[in-house]
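Why run this: before we spend reagent on co-expression, it is cheaper to look at a predicted model of the complex and decide which construct boundaries make sense. The entries below are exactly what would go into the expression plan.
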Amino acid sequence: MQEKQLTTGAVSPSGAAAVSPSAHADTTAKWFLISAIGYFFIVGIIAITIAAKFVWPELLGTVAPLSYGRLRPLHVNGMLFGWLLAADMGLTFYLVPRLCGVRIWSEKLGIATAALWNVIILGAVVSLLAGWNQGLEYAELPLALDIAVVAAWIMFGFNIFATIGTRRYAQMYVSLWYIMGTILWTAFVYLTGNFAVLAATGVNQANLNWMYVHNAVGLIFTPVGLALAYYFIPKSGNIPLFSHKLSMIGFWSLAFVYVWTGAHHMLHGPISQWLQTIAIVFSVMLLIPVWTVVYNFFATMKGQWQQLRENVPLKFLMSGVVFYLLTCFQGPMHSLRSVNAIVSKTDWIPGHAHMAVLGAFSFFAVAGCYYAIPRMFNRTLYSDALANWSYWLLMIGGLGFFVTLWLGGVWQGWQWNNPAIPFIDTVVALKPVWLVRFVSGILMFAGIVAFLYNVLATVTGAAGVEKPRAAAA
Amino acid sequence: MLSKTDASAAAFAVAAVVFFLIGGLLTTVVPPLVDKTWGKPFENSDPSKGPIGKLEPYTDLERKGRDIYVREGCWYCHTQQTRTLLADTKRSGWRGVDAPISTPDEFVYDSPHMFGTKRTGPDLSRVGGKYDAQWHKTHFRNPRDLVPGSIMPPFPWIAENPEEFDAMVAYLQKLGRAKDWRPDHDYEH
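The model came back. Tokens follow.
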């Protein structure tokens, strides 16, 4: 099945399957996905709790482990590593063997990785609630858990690279590049953010910390998220990807540009001006990889948009693409000094961050789950209608969250820039915004519940959905 | 060159790491070598060059207070940087005197750094000497008793624990004092 000719035009995520679909046991993928979705639900409860604390600051106020300062890192780490990264890894275990036309290199190693990952997440819950916090954003976990993460990542990376090494097709589909990029870059980014950072202090440490924080999104969640989008958009729409060449431009510009931008987290702050300027220039250049990728997806959908009416995975995917475009337009704009002076440190920023992590990358992962889980279990999805509900709940809740925080954040920024307004007035002014955010959070959580229920009903076959699929691929 | 990476995983891996490392090294390893103020503690005795003073390392008590600040996640709601924005110098200021801008040499002993990303509460980079211990005690018990409308959580387990409370206050009083700028010392001790 060796494809000799390298293509540059339209491509499909796989040729004729070299291994029959039923040959994939997918045990690793199943473990990763089911636990990830479980954490999505549990951490969702924590998310609502901290949103409620902005409205009722004394809620659970006398219980130290449940105070805001302990729950917030649990929310962030839980969503990033418990839900999103685990879901991304699970879907990677699903799509890499299929793209390579072979079985996963070692299912046993994969299962051990999933088990270790769960140990890490449970350890994170205990240590963060206890207040064992390293004090660095995204790197809160104690050193022992950091080491376990490195071990898990090596196990994951080895398994994936070994699978790619045995592939049947010479030319690698775009998703494979993004996955390999993720594995390699994450290694450097994670080591910088969790180990090298400990040897530095002050501004030097902050610079390493922001390099990590920024690239955790830019070189971990972005590339693996795009790997999913590149696979699942053509797959779930049954359409070839518009251009292989364009995806190359997007990939290599991302590889080069992203890492330079960390210092934009400290604009106007105590860090060298020239470094701020470099970060700004590269932040603006980020528009190149983003726009090429988004153009490729839109061009793929040309003439196929009517599919969005019925196809829930595709709905999640294309909404995710739009959110990706918007987030990555906001990012470069925030990095301009004049805009930054207004929005930085305000509630705009969580609005922006949630659009990236929830609106774009979680939507890709949810779509992947809706597409892959029924195929892995050889069943049909329990309910398309419920899936559609989960889409609208997450969409409306998400938009309510993003939009109110943007508006509130700009308003807050304007007020802060007028020192005649006492700080506390700027707090009180935002209270309606935080109430809307809480309500939006409830809607999103309802969407998560619908998603969880649908998945569980599918995999357990609870409601008698054991019709085997006709064509699984 | 890059078309080779299309079909060879090894060529791909090398290229991906090289592309990344150019920016990676130039923005992390190089800056502290170029800008020496990142690692040299603040010291100035010449008033014509700005505020005078000297950055001292943390005492054991202050460090203990700092650990509590880290543990309780105060830094998710409070930043510690007076930025190069007029509004920041005014908001961190005191009795009509603008606070000096934060510079890298004031943070040399900070690990983990506490610059922060979100201001749910006010910036604390110059809060040292602003309030006395009694104020902080009442504030930790219930912030709304002092500042109606506040959404800062109560921290009774700090206020009621004399050891932790003293350490916490010692740390807060130290913040931003390397530069001797505060015109009025009436709230101290």
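Chain B touches chain A through 79 residues (CB under 8 Å). Chain B has a mean pLDDT of 93. Bring this page to Monday's planning discussion.
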